[in-house]
Amino acid sequence: MTVALKLAYKGTAYCGWQVQKNAKSVQETLQDAMEAVFGFRCPVTGCSRTDAGVHAKGFVCKAEGVPDGIPVSRIPEALGTKLPHDIAVTEAWEVSEDFHPRYGAKGKRYCYYIRNARVRDPFTHETSALWQKPIDATACDAICAQLVGTHDFRSFMASGSDIVDTVRTVREFSCRREGETVIFSVSADGFLYNMVRILVGTVLDIHDGTLRQSAREVLDAKDRTHAGRTMPANGLCLEEVFY
Amino acid sequence: MTVALKLAYKGTAYCGWQVQKNAKSVQETLQDAMEAVFGFRCPVTGCSRTDAGVHAKGFVCKAEGVPDGIPVSRIPEALGTKLPHDIAVTEAWEVSEDFHPRYGAKGKRYCYYIRNARVRDPFTHETSALWQKPIDATACDAICAQLVGTHDFRSFMASGSDIVDTVRTVREFSCRREGETVIFSVSADGFLYNMVRILVGTVLDIHDGTLRQSAREVLDAKDRTHAGRTMPANGLCLEEVFY
Question: Which residue of B120, B121, B124 is the best one to mutate when testing the A interface, meaning the one whose CB has the most A CBs within 10 A?
Answer without folding.
Answer: B120
